[in-house]
Design brief:
Blueprint lengths: L2 E3 L4 E3 L3 H8 L3 H19 L15 E7 L14 H5 L20 E2 L6 E4 L4 E4 L12 E4 L2 E2 L5 H10 L9 H9 L9 E4 L24 E2 L18 H21 L4 H24 L6 H7 L7 H15 L4 E6 L8 H25 L6 E6 L3 E2 L2 E2 L12 E2 L5 E4 L7 E3 L1 E2 L6 E3 L2 E2 H11 L9 E3 L2 E3 L15
Parallel strand pairs: 3-11, 3-12, 7-17, 8-20, 9-10, 9-11
Antiparallel strand pairs: 1-2, 4-14, 5-6, 7-16, 12-16, 13-15, 18-19, 21-22
Length: 476
Amino acid sequence: MKFPCLGSGAWSSPTRRDFLYGLGASVGSVAFTSMMAGELAAKTTNPLVPRDGHFPARAKRCIFLMMEGGPSHIDTFDPKPKLKDLHLKKFTREGEMKSRMESGERYFVQSPFAFSRFGQSGADMAKNWEHLQNVADEICFYRGCQVDSVNHPTAQYQMNTGNRFGGDPAMGAWVTYGLGSVNQNLPGFMVLPETSFPQGGAANWGNGFLPAQYQGTTLRPKGSPILDLQPPKGITPEHQRLNLDLLGKLNAQHKQRHPQHGELAARMESYELAFRMQMEVPGVLDLGNESEAIKEAYGIGQKTTDAFGRKCLLARRLIEQDVRFVQLYHATWDSHDFIKRAHGNLVPQIDKPIAALIADLKERGLLDETLIVWCGEFGRSPDNGIRAGSVAYGRDHNPKAMTIWFAGGGVNAGHTIGATDETGAEASENVHHVRDVHVTLLKLLGLDDNKLTYFHGGRYKQLSQFGGEVIKELIG
């Protein structure tokens, strides 16, 4: 007897879990299970076919700017004048430091950066954001987010997948699972990492328990963005087509004997996608046909901004080709000491490229339908463990306060939502767990977190883990 293998769309002999799950089935639930299996089978025929969301979307696509390491909100977008009065005074909040990794005395540290307000909205920014201040009115700043972990890998996983312990699908995987991919010649979820992957590795953009077709496709930061994109010399498209047809026939026979192996179907589809990518990818990745003015605006050709400028311009070109979700990684913002030097070097690397990306999308009429998200995995503390008298001031990890900002895609531009306390140690207004940020992101893309589920491990799973609420103030 064959049963539908829930969550894969394949029909196979039941596992013990499947058997027990079906014991209590009524006639109605049997009909429902059959219908669901049919829908899943249709999805696996072409799992990336474009699909409508659960309700009208404010954004059609997302560019996610991940600042690995945890940028300091106190030194970027959330000024704390109180720290000037407390500078190098002992940190005395009772019990706050007992769970910290470092031991010994701790001292408050003021920001080494001057702040001002920019745009008609009066957005707070450190003055070393010399270019982003020009698009301040396009940005919605959110200061109320909190996460659970002080460790980089687990915090990265939680920000990217909703689960601190890894193994779950990334946001981009959930989005492409829910909406499919408009451009069938390119992956729906693409990632532009640093030369070294972030802590936690490729699981930050993995498909988790979703079918393998939904995992992120990485572009290498140096050399050829995709290895072996072009066929060997003398191999024509006709030769490749014949080889793929033969391989597809053999794989189809094997798949018929082993329908429970979803990875085989994903591999077959990846071969076909790779074949189609040979025609489209080289043109998309070639920045040579961009004007000199555009390349200058993104900082391409300039030592400080070239690397991230290329990523931002490539992200614009990818979303122009209807790639659904593009994630960019930058550096490490883990500034435990010398924060003036560390953040002082990091901000100029991304300031001009990101400002150019926002302005470029707006000029092309794409900003309203493209959601941009900027964040790290957590914020930083108002204190550090460097003894008084040292100049190596830095900040510790802080899961209780951080700044995330959004632009485009239906967000409440020109507003600052939420607040932290007078030292920036903890979110104090409009406080939400990161799961609510995820739910809001999905909402803007037309997806309902409670409906975007996948049956795995005996239960329906979702990005928020167990549900969340939309942060209404973030939506324009």
